[in-house]
């Protein structure tokens, strides 16, 4: 049996996440509070200032809850053979594999979130029920070059990103082309597209200032859908910000008969994607 830990990213946040975890790991929670300058428990459980949906707060919050869930899984005797993470969740996968420590990872996530939050005026939308090749063709024929593929999640779901007005126009065209639905996502920018290149450049020095260890077990990179090498980890993480997440390719390569996937962290978003991929190929499990 190959056990694969999956860590969700931004979009998985919800009020109340981590409720059962904060009291179990008080030292880690205090460390997070010291780094963030606010109470992570209060943000996730009460969100008194309505900040949980803002990128600068969302990404660190999801990282912390995922990290607490990892420690809860380990305390119950569960350990991964492979780890994957969707976008932000990749930082949890790398932390689990010992590439950096919890605090180092959280500081990286804070720097990443601040850089990404500075790119305003755009968003993302999930396109359901349309082949990604058809989707690209529709966008190209309409001259919507600013709308780009951001996440290749499942056979039935591709996420696009770009300026808000372009997303609205793209939605109409894609629905006319046969998409079942086009749904705006609760994010504040056009992540994982060339619109984020300045954010990647801003974030690069924070990554390059660290000495990153080789992963203790395979972690599959969003950027390539291949295992992280022992060197060049920083380059892949920088490139992840302004390139698509190859989630479908990642999961399909790992989903062998002896694979056991466990979602670690906030919500069940990745578990639902796994079911969708299996359903498409006729596997009901």
TrEMBL record:
Question: Cross-referenced InterPro entries, in alphabetical order?
Answer: Ac_transferase_dom_sf, Acyl_transferase_dom, Acyl_Trfase/lysoPLipase, Mal-CoA-ACP_Trans/PKS_FabD, Malonyl_CoA-ACP_transAc, Malonyl_CoA-ACP_transAc_FabD, Malonyl_transacylase_ACP-bd
Q: Which domain of life is it from?
A: Bacteria
The enzyme's main class, written as a single word, is transferase
Reaction(s) catalyzed by this protein?
holo-[ACP] + malonyl-CoA = malonyl-[ACP] + CoA
SMART domains on file: PKS_AT (SM00827)
Positions annotated as active site in the UniProt record: 87, 192
Protein family membership? Belongs to the fabD family.
Sorted alphabetically, which NCBIfam families does this protein's record hold?
Answer: fabD (TIGR00128)
Q: What is this protein called?
A: Malonyl CoA-acyl carrier protein transacylase
User: Species name for this entry?
Assistant: Streptomyces piniterrae
């Amino acid at each position: 049996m190959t056990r694969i830990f999956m860590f969700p990213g931004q979009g998985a946040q919800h009020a109340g996440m981590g409720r059962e975890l904060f009291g179990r790991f008080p030292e880690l929670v205090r460390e997070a509070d010291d780094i963030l300058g606010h109470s992570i428990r209060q943000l996730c459980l009460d969100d008194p200032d309505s900040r949980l949906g803002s990128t600068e707060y969302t990404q660190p919050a999801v990282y912390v809850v995922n990290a607490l869930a990892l420690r809860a899984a380990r305390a119950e005797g569960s350990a991964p053979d492979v780890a994957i993470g969707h976008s932000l969740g990749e930082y949890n996968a790398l932390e689990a594999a010992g590439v950096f420590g919890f605090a180092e990872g959280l500081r990286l996530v804070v720097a990443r979130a601040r850089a990404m939050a500075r790119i305003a005026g755009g968003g993302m939308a999930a396109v359901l029920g349309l082949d990604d090749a058809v989707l690209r063709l529709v966008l190209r024929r309409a001259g919507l070059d600013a709308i780009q593929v951001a996440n290749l999640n499942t056979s039935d779901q591709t996420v696009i990103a770009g300026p808000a007005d372009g997303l609205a126009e793209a939605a109409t065209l894609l629905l006319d082309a046969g998409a079942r639905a086009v749904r705006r996502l609760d994010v504040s920018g056009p992540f994982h597209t060339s619109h984020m290149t300045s954010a990647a450049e801003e974030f690069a020095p924070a990554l390059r200032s660290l000495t990153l260890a080789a992963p203790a077990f395979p972690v599959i990179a969003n950027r390539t859908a291949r295992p992280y090498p022992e060197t060049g980890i920083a380059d892949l993480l920088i490139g992840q910000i302004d390139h698509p997440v190859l989630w479908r390719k990642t999961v399909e390569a790992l989903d062998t008969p002896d694979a056991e996937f466990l979602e670690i962290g906030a919500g069940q978003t990745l578990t639902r994607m796994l079911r969708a991929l299996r359903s498409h190929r006729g596997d009901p499990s």
